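M3 family metallopeptidase (Pseudoalteromonas spongiae), 722 aa
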Amino acid sequence: MQHKTCLALAISAAIMLTGCSKEPESPNAAHTEVSETTSKESKNTLTQNPFFKEWNTPFGSPPFDEIKTTDFLPAFEKSMAEHKKEINAITQSEYAPTFDNTIAAMELAGASLTRVSRVFFNLTGTESNDEMQALQRKVSPMLTRHNNEIRMDEALFKRVAHVYNNRSAANLNPEQTRLLNRVYDSFVRTGANLTEEQRAELASINERISELSTQFGQNSLNDSRAFTLVLEESDLDGLSQAQRDAAAAAAKARNLAGKYVITLNRASVEPFLQFSSRRDLREKAFKGWANRGDNDNEFDNKAIIAEMVSLRAKRAQLLGYKNHSEYVLSNTMASSPETAMDLLLKVWEPAIEKAEQERSWIKEQMAAEGVKHELAAWDWRYYAEKVRKAKFDLDQGEIAEYFELENMLAAKFYVAEQLFGLKFVERNDIPVYNEVVRVWEVQDKTGNAIGLFFGDYYARSSKRSGAWMSSFRTQQKLAGDVKPIIVNNMNLNKPAEGEKTLMSYSDAVTLFHEFGHALHGLLSNVTYPTLAGTSVPRDWVEFPAQLYEHFIAQPEMLEKFARHYKTNEPMPKALIERIKQASTFNQGFATIEFTASALVDMAYHQLTDVKDLDVSAFENDVLTKYGKPSEIIMRHRSTHFGHIFAGGYSSAYYAYMWSEILDADGFDAFLEKKNIFDPETAEKLYHYIYSRGDTLDYFEAYEGFRGRKPTTDALLRNRGLD
């Protein structure tokens, strides 16, 4: 996932990123400090600083060709000072508090700081280097202190509370009422009702968590970068030509001509684990992947996790909650840890049963091949692929030949056009931060521009792993007709010059997922920035993205866009049918991988007294209690679990499963009409979901779209767990 929130409400050390990830899971740096040279350079005259000039670019997009690293620190310092002045003007007003002079004024305050922050934190995730990482370690606690000062400003809260307490007589419209409730609640949840001594303690906790979160993300990136599995041609047995080419390109990028390199980017390591016939090398790759942040080196994250879990528990109790999980979920659709756990355990038991069936098939395959060794975690994907091929005549290498990036981009744009009347016109005149980034102008059905869409699809050493959506600007109408600038990130292997980019079917689904988030931002149609786009709870934000995934799986979409990268022939109908038949294969494995991570997340954050936390032992104890098969590990082990330790999903990783109930049930609305682009259903999808931001109760929004409450039937059916 990730994300999303407006700075008028809070910048808590980072701009949120949505998707599968996400608050900035910050890239991590060598342990350097901002140098004296940098400090001197950062004192550039502000008149030369691009953040204090008008951006004369198309759509007012960031002038990346003008922005230097040394511009950020003075821009942060000046914009924080400006924001503080704007807040002081609100608190010192001689007029009685009203919605307009307090709540709306807060929405408009901090625009400059929002602009700087969005550029900076997007770049720390994509263009990281030692200087940017050192600067991030400096800036993140500065922002946390700044945010604490505003959140705990007694005079400001007094005005907010006055407006809130007199709301019934204020004649507010529904969106204004929603914003007022959210602003008031955010103050209370961040300590406005605490004593002065308690607020000081809370501020200290928040600042320390911010520092630890930044360091966790940087450690994860740096430990991942430190690992490379360098191979000779004789080590490539089992790999397809496309996979060999990707490994050769990775080696060339590291000046290892004639060699092949497997990295810990998912697009590199997962196919290797799936296809390499070299068990010894699979073991090395798997252990490198599983042990990121857990290598007892300078990038080790275990002590950081222990301290963060302890601080989160203390913060929750300070705010009057039993534990961090109760604090987080009190503000979500699930509303309580018990509800979230109930969902996870409902899918856990049938997933265990299905995984046992999958394991028996794998062991039969191993026995047929005369394999003597026991099934280990680094064997599962390899033999599962053989079972898939034997049972369903499916070869993932063959399938990938039909999923070429350009065709998949055309596919996701086509769906947006059919559903919402959107057109995507590529622009080559807009500055980008890396030469591989592409930009499209997004137009509605009348030809009017509604925003910009940036696509950054390739892995590189300066970029964190995973896939996510974020924004350089969010939609709003309060400060004029402000059009969104949205970005999608992925980590595909960049092919050699002149070659096409092939992706797995899973990558294609991820491409659609992140684009679903992007549309949630692009189609936002609200007045107030705090309520715009993806600025909603975790267990709602994934729904629009996961619903969009379903479109690429439909036979008519595969026939139209899944074309062979060499011949341009459409995917054969027989292959499409086999893909459909195999759609629930290995779902026991996939469900356990995910749910194990969610269960550990919930377990950490339901602790109330955290002492001497042994991270590895804790993971093992929790998952042994639930009977996790030893051959399947968590999708994200704690030491690189950026969603919860460097992002916005702490005690909320369950949200992907919660949203899957909604998306599976919701997509059935199209299937029931026997038209995946049914205009009436698409109009409801736009009106109640994609355009609404946080302006409507989520259950009310879902029922407005679907006509009834959701059920779990479609989720269990789609995963083969019914």
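Residues 716 and 722 are 5 Å apart (CA to CA). The chain has a mean pLDDT of 92. ok done for today
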